Amino acid sequence: MTVTRSLQVIEPTPLRAEVIHGFGRGSKVLGFPTANMRIRWDTNEPSSPLTDEESAVLSFARDINTGIYAAYACVDDGPDPGVYKVAMSVGWNPTFDDLKTKTIEPWILHDYDEDFYGCHLRLLVVAYIRPEVKFNSFDELIQEIRADGDFCSMQLDTPELSALRSHSFFAPRPALPVLDCAAIASAESAEDPAIRALHGACIESGFFVIENHGVSNQLIDRAFDAATGFFSLSDEEKAQHQATAESGYKGYTPVGGSHNCSPNSVAPERKETFYFGGQGGWTETVVDYQVEGFGDVCVEFHSEMLKVSRTLFKGLSLALGCEADFFETHAGQDPAANVLLATYPPVNSGETSCGAHTDCGFLTMLCSNGGRGLQVRSTDGTWISVASSRYKFVCNLGDLAAYWSNGVYQSTPHRVQNDSTTDRQSWIFFNNLDPNAQIKPIGAEAQELEAMTCGEYVSRKLQSMRNNFKDCPETDVKDPEWSEVVEAKAL
Ligand code: ADP
Ligand code: RBF
Ligand code: MG
Asked: Which of 87, 141, 149, 299 is most buried per CB count within 10 Å?
């Protein structure tokens, strides 16, 4: 089969859609993973009205000539912020005669460290290359796709096309600051650039991302595999370890079974959780259930995250103008450190994954398997959709940290809304300091503030949530009108 390619430049066409699972043909093994884009073919009986973006993708899939195209792409909510070159197919994939729907399949000419199912892909289609062909062998198909990659790569580097990388479609969007945890660990003063960056982030929103935290990729991968195994057990199996008030809410809670995070969530928030941990060097083994290694992973994850939180305590002590061991000495010896392992299934219309709230504790660190969901409120009331990478942690300060800092640092409202079509899974680590330690707000006159322990402070709000927000007005974080969600740049 002879295949010829020629460049036919088209009007640059922006498309944005969720990355969904394709045919699982192991194309990664063949060397060209394709980020299949979600096309809403369900317009006769739509599950929800099509957005403008969804309509644009549907029209493109319907109307454009099938064939191979060149494009640029960037992943909105995912692990890597770059704009990269793409070779893509639009059509019926005739080599596989079992496929009955058209697909849009971009092969991004870049190596990503992790998958990004559930994220949104931004694609600017810029040129047509060749028609699609039915090949007689997979070897032939693979060879031609490779050649398409080379051809597109070369063409997309020409000045004419390359200028489109700065198309407004790829304009920078808000992003959380990314901090180097190793630099925080080795810093010795408030003037160190790593500490200044931490200070700036805590004043601004209390939200930041850390990399170089020392938790191995391998442990993180094991954690997500074990969690998937755990949540796939039958309801009966999981219910054997149901969380109760007597268990200190430790254990398993099904969808609909836990408290809401916001008084404004009308329906039970759509999340399924497993909660574990305790004070200080918590080493109690979680029952392995039928999932091999689940208990070990829980213990290891807890202990590794505890170390990282101690590094951040040191950074926060310096940033607030104290001795490096301030938090460790006053309230970090035997901290209450718990982990909430959560799965957020895609929401149905009218549902929330987790309503808007501020965290009641000191420091939260989130390790999420990617996809969409976490949104942080910005000062103008819009919601910023935060990018996910399982190997970088999104950290935020809670109310207790804002209180210790005498209001200098922020505890910012955030929420989870999984409006993608795949589950979102998160390992969320909370370090709420030593429950018996007296809070000593830095820089405040002691007599101005109520004497209180960290434990009292945190449990007040937690109890209120568990009582359905009956008796605690300060937790009444008003969920503003559904304001616009601004898509953040990938991490
Ligand atoms: P599927 O059959 O589910 O589409 P693939 O083997 O085609 O599986 O792999 C696609 C997935 O691989 C994407 O959804 C994305 O998460 C991930 N991926 C990693 N690197 C790339 C890349 N360079 N281009 C496209 N997808 C990639
Ligand atoms: N499938 C075909 O059947 N015929 C093609 O000519 C063809 N060309 C492709 C070119 C590129 C650049 C890419 C990324 C894919 C192409 N495919 C083609 C689609 C391929 O069959 C599909 O991506 C894999 O089977 C994974 O689902
Ligand atoms: Mg694919």
From this structure: 87
Residue to mutate, 112, 113, 121, ligand 1, most ligand atoms under 8 Å from C-beta: 112
**Closest ligand 2 atom, residue 152 Cα:** 12
Q: Give the residue among 340, 281, 308, 311 at the shortest CA–CA distance from 215.
A: 308
pLDDT tens digits, 287-337: 776 788 899 999 999 999 999 999 999 999 999 999 999 999 999 999 999
Burial label, 391 (beta-carbon count in 10 A; 0-12, 13-18, 19+): middle
User: Percentage of the chain surpassing pLDDT 90?
Assistant: 70
| Atom in ligand 2 nearest the alpha carbon of residue 27 | 26
d(Cα 454, Cα 330) in Å, to the nearest integer? Answer: 11
Q: Residues whose CB is under 5 A from ligand 3 (ion)?
A: 22, 34, 36
- Indicate if the pLDDT at residue 10 is higher than 50: yes
C-alpha of residue 21 to centroid of ligand 3, in Å: 7
pLDDT tier at 243 (50, 70, 90 boundaries)? confident
Asked if 146 contacts 42 with a C-beta cutoff of 8 angstroms, the reply is no
